[in-house]
Amino acid sequence: SAVGDDVPRFEIPNRDYWLFRGTLADYADWSVENSARWPWGSSPDPAFIWPADHAWCITNDVDPHFAIIAAPEEAIIRIVADSRIDAVLD
Q: Distance between CA 73 and CA 17 in Å, rounded?
């Protein structure tokens, strides 16, 4: 079967997305579990990640230096203050 034929997907101009559901713990094995669907090497990180309650969202693009995090102000302040994370306010 073609890449992603067995999962729902959606398209926007210049991008195709497959929709997966799982736990945050599933993220650790993302590349391994999806290598059959993504035959061009390691699978990319998910473009959008959010919890069931939609309290926050992380998005990134194919450019590895880019990601956006949307969350309550308190969470953003904690992320920016954490020296382990390269984050800036925009």
A: 28
